[in-house]
Amino acid sequence: MPVQLLKIVKGQSETPLPSHLQKENLQQLEEGCDYTNKYIQGIVSLSYPLTKLGDGTDFFKIVLQDSDNLSSQINSIHVFIYGKMAEDCAKMIRHGETFIVAGFKVVKLPTAREDDRHGCNLEVSEEAGSAIYICTKPGTTTASETASVSVAPKYVYTPLNHLKDGTIVNLYGVVKFFKPPYISKGTDYCSVVTLVDPSNVKLTCSLFNGNLDSLPKIYKVGDIVRFHRIKIREYNGQMQGITSGGFASLTFDGTVGAPIVPRTSSRVYTFMDEEQKTVEELRIWAASNISISGPAAKLSGVQPMLFFDLTCQLVGKAKVDGSSFLLKCLTHGTKHLGITNCLKIGPSVEPMCMKSCEKRHFRSIVQMRLNFCFTMPVWDGTKCPYPTWKVPVEAKDLEGDKVFLHQLRNLAVDILVYDNHVQLAESLKIGSFLRIYSIHSKQASADNEDVSHIEFHLHGGTCYGRGIGVLPESNPDVKELKAFLESLDLTVGQNMESMCSMDVDSTFDNDTDLELHLQRCQQLSVKVLTDHQDLSNTELKTIKNSSAPRQYRIRAKLRTYKPQKLHQSVKLHCSKCNSLQEVPDRDDFDFILRGSAGTASNPELHNTSWYESVTWTTQDQKQREITIHFVKHDEMLQHPEDTLLMVEGGTLKEIWKLSKRFKCIIPVRSTEDDLKLLDLSAPFLLQRNVKYYGCKQCSAPKPVKNLSSLAAEQQPSWEPSEIAQVLGIELLQYVFIMKFTLVDETGALNAYLFDYEKFFQIPACEILTNNFLQEKMQMTMNTLCPPGRKLGDLPWLECFIKSYNVRDAMKNQVYYQIFDTTVAEDVV
DNA sequence: TTAGGATTTG
């Protein structure tokens, strides 16, 4: 039992302590040493009520006095007891009793002590293997009475009107003003906090700590704080608070009715019901006595020329080269001041001819050059109604997700951070939620701008609480902001209109370029290939009057085209018999698969030298069998993305799923002596999203085991054409077939497009399964032949056509085909 | 030690 009562009779414990335990002296305790088999003995001089930690763990704290060394300077130590032991001890322990603890952990206090308390605490818990022995004297109160004997903590809170110089006190207050922690000129972080309480007296405290986390987590005016052990001093006739050793703080949201959850960095703190009452009372008092409506704003609500606090998310950061940034932005002509040259020479060179204001400017430029400043793109999901200033930074200097920054380019604003804030800004993590205090929104205009823009500056210094605070994700404002940001659909939201205009703006330097581009789109939408540059344009009338076959370069407009439903333009072509056929639809494939599912897999064909076979039975009522033959390479199975599978008995859906994961799928069925391909109306091979078909007329299927020769290759590429060849399949090719009606001033003619990939720069085999490519193709056609335009307004196209003869028994007819033409990429 | 509330002037 971890907590044991030892009965003392005639000054001796009835039961002795375990013999392996050795007594340790309080003075000799050191952090990091092993105290598994050591014990400390003392008298309980103080115990605090049992409390719970933030994570729900029971916590009990006592002060143990070293009864052997009462005269020594340090003769007491705090013992922190966690979990079940805390609960047990709280029930049993009484003031003045002898307490023995073994297997404890020694933890050094963060700051040096000014009182007689030990520089370390003892941490005790069942999990750590600790044991506690409490020595009771017979005839004293029973364990059940002990709770009432526990001594309440001696925390007394001093109202702000009762503070005296030179004292160390505990106090409560409402935050009237604060500076978020910043890096001081000394060694620590500093936070300045002004408190008020119902006595209506103000107290400004300067709080220092090397650990940012140890300073109060104040996020807004109106927050309520509890300070323990703050030193009071008089300064300039007023009381002032300053951190002393052992300073600790709790911070609470000041909103009436909000949950009372202390913000603290210390694992251990006491917080009683009574103190909860204090917070509630202060909240109510503050509600009618403190103006907590801070200068918070959303970007959508910013006005020029004001200072405001912004709750936002950091999406990027960049060091700004002070000199180049200033040189770019200065409206003063830097050249005539000779500044550029002076900067090259060095900051000590100051042109003699300068006026005083120019000198000031020069010095600030020099300072900027020496002290880099910083820019932080942030967003809060709302759009600033004014044009905002984009701080010029090199792309390489900008940290953050480029795609995300691009998506946010109309929503994010740049905050330019100066001087003492730079170091803190540099350390911020992108994606973190911030409250930036006292941002200056400054209206400005550059010489080359007609309309003014807004700049956001976080100036140097900490006046008015200027600074940056990182908010935790648990903060209610952050929760709300996060939910809002996540609700935004940046792909469509973000005003397509402005996105489009931005794209144009960023692509073209000026209006003239843009105009030229538009003209070019309209006049020369289709580029010609250079190997036919020698050809000059021929009028359509001339072409029609000439004999075939011949090749021409033409300049014409596309009056109309067929099919208008572009997916219908995709056909399968056999280059051997020159036949064209429709692409079978999925129902055909499904039908064939169902038909072959009736054929049971032949176990004799399983597991050969070149494939490994596995059979599953489906869980559904039908209990179908699916057999997969994994083709091996060098007698080994390959990675799925390199593997060819032969599948027996799968459904359309199952095969489709397998094709997502494995390189190639060949649907097969068993015969007596070999695996066979299915009917050639079904694809003989599936690779990525593409179904490959064979020509029924020209194919002469060979045994599937021929594949083993490909599998044996050093690095099987599993090219569809190679697979087709070994399987005796004449591969059908996907092709676009379209009819273009072309016109020029002299006449019209129909030309066919027969294209595997070249014209649209889209592989015909991929178009049916790729929405993006379908859209691209539609856009191309819309550019070549914009819907709803009159003939005169259609763009001119340049392309090659060739004429050819088609003879049948009755007559000879001339046809035209577009060839060697590619739609220029910038058309789409 | 640092800051000691009380907007940069870029």
Topology:
Elements: E1 3-9, E2 12-13, E3 22-23, E4 38-47, E5 51-52, E6 58-65, E7 76-82, H1 84-92, E8 98-102, E9 105-108, E10 117-124, E11 131-136, H2 146-149, E12 168-178, E13 182-183, E14 189-196, E15 202-209, E16 224-235, E17 238-252, H3 273-289, E18 296-297, E19 306-314, E20 317-320, H4 322-329, H5 334-337, H6 339-345, H7 356-370, E21 373-379, E22 398-399, H8 402-407, E23 413-417, H9 420-427, E24 433-444, E25 453-458, E26 467-471, H10 476-487, H11 496-507, H12 511-523, E27 526-528, H13 540-544, E28 550-562, E29 570-573, E30 580-582, H14 586-597, E31 611-617, E32 625-631, E33 644-648, H15 652-661, E34 664-670, E35 675-677, E36 685-687, E37 690-692, H16 707-711, H17 720-726, E38 733-744, E39 747-755, H18 764-767, H19 771-784, E40 796-807, E41 812-819, E42 821-823
Parallel strand pairs: 1-11, 3-4, 7-10, 15-17, 18-19, 23-25, 33-34, 39-41
Antiparallel strand pairs: 1-2, 4-6, 4-8, 5-6, 6-7, 8-11, 9-10, 12-14, 12-16, 13-14, 14-15, 16-17, 19-21, 19-24, 20-21, 20-22, 21-23, 24-25, 24-26, 27-42, 28-38, 28-40, 29-30, 29-38, 31-32, 32-33, 34-35, 34-36, 36-37, 38-39, 40-41
Helix pairs in contact: 4-7
The structure holds one DNA strand of 10 nucleotides.
Question: Can I get a quick summary?
Answer:
The protein is an alpha+beta fold and 828 residues long. It has 19 helices and 42 strands. The strands form six sheets. Strands 1, 2, 3, 4, 5, 6, 7, 8, 9, 10 and 11 form an eleven-stranded mixed sheet that branches. Strands 31, 32, 33, 34, 35, 36 and 37 form a seven-stranded mixed sheet that branches.
